[in-house]
Amino acid sequence: MGSIISSIAIALRQAANSIGNQANHELSPFFKRIAYKKGRVAAITATARKLAVIIWNMLTKEEPYKKAQVIDKAKKTKAAGLRQVQRRLVALDLSQDELIRLFAKTSLSVG
């Protein structure tokens, strides 16, 4: 029994690593967020666990995979990040010229 569980765990970690290498997978934002905070190994483990939970719910509760729910979560996370950046920019009280100079130094553009 132990070797079966180990095989499943290895397969889930390999799938999670593959998700981390893909740019357009619906779980990629989750993987990248964890990898940025805790490192790639932790992101692989967390994504493998998320996959295990998804599979478990599909098998035991006979639920279909809710791709839209995962995508909505990623959009909400991105929107929250944008709001946080906006609040920080407002708190800095930068003039329009300062903002233009700031964004000219980056790959972002204003206007």
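the 2nd protein, sequnce then structure:
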Amino acid sequence: MEAHDPGVNISNIIFNVNTHFYNYDK
């Protein structure tokens, strides 16, 4: 798990949050 790119980390966090709410909304 590489965490040297803040942009990638932010994108992953946003993706995870969106996926979480998407699954919760189902």
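The chain is about 75% helix and 0% strand. The chain has a mean pLDDT of 77.
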